[in-house]
């Protein structure tokens, strides 16, 4: 059956497609999720491997959607490497896991490299919002149900009562919107509420915007289910009704969630739907549990906004109409777990990746063991030299000027390893015009710290208007930095890291 599918895919992808993996190639066929991992495999494997990445050079691994060509490469693969820790778009992981042949090694480098002394950093979410940041979460492993990283948790809105409509939506990296919940057109039980359902991997959470069209008290009922595999029947995980006070005073005596970070949470292991709340919003993930009936979520008058212009926002009404909005705190389609997945920003972590890649290739191709060991030893020596070069280059920046402001929260490892303070990151929200307070805060950070430059990722530079405008207002220079992908300018991991260090030194000194 799988090979019949493959034959169809070959016809569909056509003769003009770029070279991919092939059963006619004597080399070990390796598929990776990102171009950075592909380069690492090529450094270790050399001529004994043929490696391709599912996410093309220059594309965003957080948002990339796999193609039929990607499925074809996965089917031919002898070995697969992903970063995981929820770096990649979930559909990339599902494409990988669903189409690999039985017995093919499928390695999650960020998770397994800790055995080789890779260091991991918890994600810190300190967004300093004026209103509560409300997200969605799937908590637990679901091990007793046989859950794996391709499993889905389905969170469905099934009823909303209130004076107006309620919407829940995500704004993607490039401004596109993904509507999860829409009470304006009712809820269709016959379809399994598929038009009002958000999907998360197990043990993950996501950020989103919530909109209410009129002030007053609302109740929103949600249900959750676990779908272990694409063909399995969803397992119920509970149902709950949450109350929102929109532009009105919450009821006296109620426990009010009105600041910090909260998640509407499907607990997979206990089969419950509840709220997790951290009033500080500091990212230490010690949230208090609340039953839905025991809390009121406040959407205050200061959350008043206007429907932005643009076809993608018409579901909320006409541009300029008043709405109440809890904004999406970390913008872009950002589904993640508790650990920062960008381990490679510390070169010593890539040394751990390389050793794991070496051992995996040796297991799949024992005849190449000598080659893989020799190439890995040489690569480790270069990575050690790279690490020392990065420290030396960044240390040359005056200490009082080592502040990094970017558009993407991807440089925590760089900061921790090489002495750069992450002073701020901005992923602009095309759905909502930044407030004067937001712009003033960013401008004051740049002025107060006397930050000479801010950094844009080349692949996103054309879509980062907020940081560009603030840089112009403050006189800060715009400089390039790479985080997740290679391109024609930086074709290898080593080249990317040296480019970044030189850019930091040139622009911050």
From TrEMBL:
<dbReference type="InterPro" id="IPR006128">
    <property type="entry name" value="Lipoprotein_PsaA-like"/>
</dbReference>
<dbReference type="Pfam" id="PF01297">
    <property type="entry name" value="ZnuA"/>
</dbReference>
<keyword id="KW-0479">Metal-binding</keyword>
<keyword id="KW-0732">Signal</keyword>
<dbReference type="InterPro" id="IPR022435">
    <property type="entry name" value="Surface-anchored_actinobac"/>
</dbReference>
<dbReference type="InterPro" id="IPR006129">
    <property type="entry name" value="AdhesinB"/>
</dbReference>
<dbReference type="InterPro" id="IPR006127">
    <property type="entry name" value="ZnuA-like"/>
</dbReference>
<keyword id="KW-0813">Transport</keyword>
<dbReference type="InterPro" id="IPR022434">
    <property type="entry name" value="ABC_LPXTG_lipo_actinobac"/>
</dbReference>
<comment type="similarity">
    <text>Belongs to the bacterial solute-binding protein 9 family.</text>
</comment>
<dbReference type="InterPro" id="IPR050492">
    <property type="entry name" value="Bact_metal-bind_prot9"/>
</dbReference>
<protein>
    <submittedName>
        <fullName>Anchored repeat ABC transporter, substrate-binding protein</fullName>
    </submittedName>
</protein>
């Amino acid at each position: 059956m799988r090979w019949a599918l493959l034959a169809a895919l070959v016809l569909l992808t056509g003769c003009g497609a770029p070279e991919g993996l092939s059963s006619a190639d004597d080399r070990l066929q390796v598929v990776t999720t990102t171009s950075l991992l592909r380069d690492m495999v090529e450094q270790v494997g050399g001529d004994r491997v043929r490696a391709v990445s599912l996410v093309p050079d220059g594309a965003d691994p957080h948002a990339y959607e796999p193609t039929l060509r990607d499925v074809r490469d996965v089917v031919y693969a002898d070995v697969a490497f992903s970063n995981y820790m929820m770096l990649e778009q979930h559909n990339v992981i599902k494409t990988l896991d669903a189409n690999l042949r039985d017995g093919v090694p499928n390695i999650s480098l960020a998770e397994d490299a800790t055995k080789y002394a890779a260091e991991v950093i918890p994600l810190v979410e300190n967004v300093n919002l004026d209103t509560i940041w409300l997200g969605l979460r799937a908590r637990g492993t679901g091990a007793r149900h046989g859950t794996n990283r391709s499993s889905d948790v389905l969170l469905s809105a099934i009823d909303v009562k209130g004076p107006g409509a309620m919407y829940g939506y995500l704004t993607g990296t490039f401004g596109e919107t993904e509507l999860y919940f829409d009470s304006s057109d009712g809820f269709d039980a016959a379809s399994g509420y598929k038009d009002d359902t958000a999907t998360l991997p197990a043990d993950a959470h996501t950020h989103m915007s919530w909109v209410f069209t009129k002030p007053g008290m609302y109740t929103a009922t949600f249900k959750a289910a676990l779908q272990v595999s694409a063909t399995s029947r969803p397992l119920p995980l509970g149902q709950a009704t949450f109350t929102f006070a929109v532009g009105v005073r919450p009821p006296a005596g109620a426990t009010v969630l009105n600041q910090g970070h909260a998640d509407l949470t499907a607990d997979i292991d206990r089969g419950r739907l509840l709220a997790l709340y951290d009033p500080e919003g500091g990212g230490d993930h010690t949230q208090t549990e609340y039953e839905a009936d025991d809390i009121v979520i406040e959407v205050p008058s200061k959350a008043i906004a206007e429907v932005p212009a643009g076809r993608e926002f018409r579901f909320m009404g006409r541009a300029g109409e008043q709405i109440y909005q809890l904004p999406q705190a970390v913008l872009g389609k950002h589904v993640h777990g508790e650990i920062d997945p960008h381990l490679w920003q510390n070169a010593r972590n890539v040394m751990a990746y390389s050793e794991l890649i070496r051992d995996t290739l040796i297991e799949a191709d024992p005849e190449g063991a000598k080659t893989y060991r020799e190439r890995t030893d040489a690569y480790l020596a270069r990575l050690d030299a790279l690490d020392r070069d990065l420290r030396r280059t960044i240390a040359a920046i005056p200490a009082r000027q080592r502040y990094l402001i970017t558009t993407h929260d991807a440089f925590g490892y760089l900061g921790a390893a090489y002495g750069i303070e992450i002073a701020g990151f901005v992923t602009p929200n095309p759905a909502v015009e930044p407030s004067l307070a937001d712009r003033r805060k960013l401008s004051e950070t740049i002025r107060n710290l006397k930050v000479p430059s801010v950094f844009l990722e080349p692949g996103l530079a054309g879509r980062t208007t907020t940081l560009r405008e603030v840089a112009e207002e403050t006189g800060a220079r715009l400089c390039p930095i790479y985080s997740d992908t290679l391109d024609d300018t930086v074709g290898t991991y080593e080249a990317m890291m040296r480019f970044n260090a030189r850019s930091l030194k040139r622009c911050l000194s």
